[in-house]
Amino acid sequence: MLSRRFTLSLLAVLVIVLGIAAHAQRAQWPSESSDAKPSEHVAGEFDYYALVLSWSPTECITSSRGRSDTQCARRDGKRY
Question: Which of 5, 46, 48, 74 is most buried, taking the most CB atoms under 10 A from its CB?
């Protein structure tokens, strides 16, 4: 039977070897490449976008503007 110390040493070597192999397989970011020229920022070209929605149900109660605010002073009953 293998000793506990030998098993732990073998496991440590395996983790190190797999870590080195994973690092070698990692693709470079475009900013990391040495021959990459700086790209110009162009309107409408982007990698991702975020749609952020928020809701504040107590805005009309706690707002210093109170009911004079256009969001809180609606007459149709829909106070957003």
Answer: 74
